[in-house]
Prior knowledge:
Blueprint lengths: L1 H8 L2 H25 L2
Helix pairs in contact: 1-2
Amino acid sequence: MRGSIMTLRNSPVEADEDLPLLLEICVMRLVSYYYTDP
């Protein structure tokens, strides 16, 4: 996954900056699912 992002961006720095953002979005979604489920 990380390699594909780096090749798409053609810039390892931008890819490394985008990874934490993607991870944060995934975590936020998981947390929202846990809180919404009774």
